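Q: I'm a student working through a structural biology exercise. My instructor gave each of us a protein and asked us to get a predicted structure, then write a short paragraph describing it. Mine is NACHT domain-containing protein. I'm not confident about reading structure output yet, so if you can add a plain explanation after the tokens, that would really help. Here is the sequence I was given:
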Amino acid sequence: MATAPLFTQAAAQWNLDPLYGDLAKAKAELMPHKRYGLTDLEQTRLRGLLLRYSPAEISDQEGIEARTVEVALSQGLYRYVEQVTERDRNALDSWRDVADWLETAGYRSTQVAINWDQMPDVPVLYGRQVELDQLKQWMLGTSACRFVSIIGPVGMGKTSLAITLAQAVQTQFDGVIWQSLRHRPTLDNVLGQWLNELPDDVIPHSDEWYDQLSALMAYLQTHRCLLVLDNLESILSSGSLVSEYEPAYSNYRELLKRLGEQPHQSCIVVTSRERNRELAGSRAANSPVRYLELGGLRYDDAAQLLAAERLPASGKPHWKSLVAQYRGNPLMLRIVAMTIQELFDGDVDRFRRHGRTMFGDIKYLIDQQYDRLSAAEQDILGQLAERAEPLSIEDIQHPDCLAAISALLSKSLIEKSPAGFTLIPVVMEYVREQLP
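A: Happy to help. First, here is the predicted structure for NACHT domain-containing protein. I'll explain a few features afterward.
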């Protein structure tokens, strides 16, 4: 049974035929004893490099040792690329040079239409390399996803991650559009704007949103575009166990449903604090719809953030407990670092001895999540706060217990251990203040 060719997405962005031809000439000059032309394997690896796959990632796709690919590239393709781009022999010392040099030489075919107008100005992203690599693999791999959602609580850095991701992969798409939902635009306005901004003219049958959506889907089937929808929770109703769209925005369900279910060449990335039916996704390796639950920063990355916020290094022995207390939430750590600087002269130990984890802007962040919870979720948080010890499913008394606990786990408001379910420290303090 024939194996499907790898990295075929490169054809949408690169003039492959003339590139294959020029590299074949370079190969003939450098290695006249070899058969003329690039082999299928050389063409495959070239496409992988053009899509910014590392040799290790290419070897994973081929199912062979990374060292085998690295040696073959250094003895072959790297030398051909040097010849074609008129570089000195052995000047290419990084696989990243291949796409950069060939783009400079004019082999890229597509001018990418990019609209960053609604992209917010966000803080520097610390860490997240594992998450970035995973998202890039989903979006650019051989079984490329058409729908990816990034789910996580307020302050966790979903938007920052999505921005970094979009900027890293933008050259792999014909067009990139960033759409913020923070100010709750109607779908009619969003679709009309998108159709105007995409590289080629797209003319719907009418100005009705469903005709605009059909025109968009037809376009996405023949062009490879990246669409980012930021802050989906802004158009979801609050107070319900199942996140539903507010009535004025119910047609967004059809947009996301079609983008997830209907085959197309493009990719949509959605960020949200809550996961509804359209964002459910799958963990199956080849699923076209995936989701990433964004957790807290690893300690080393959080320590970089605290250092950048100018917390004195003398307090480093206490940084680990500080990061653990706020579960690596980047925005909360920034707020806490600023508070420690202003009120405790940078002394982390003094702040810890003060005993308060929830205050000011930290309280405001938790308010945003708590106010959106259903009565069942709030009731269960209250039970966990009253007992102040891990509770099992059997200990928690509520008819909607299973659905509510699942929702609270997905929102990172509670944690599960072998002993049972508990609140994270800052949420524990917050909920206790809500109790009568």
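A: Here are two points you could use in your paragraph. The chain has four domains: 8-104, 113-293, 299-355, 365-434. The longest strand covers residues 175-180. It's a good idea to check both against the output above yourself.
Q: Great, thank you!
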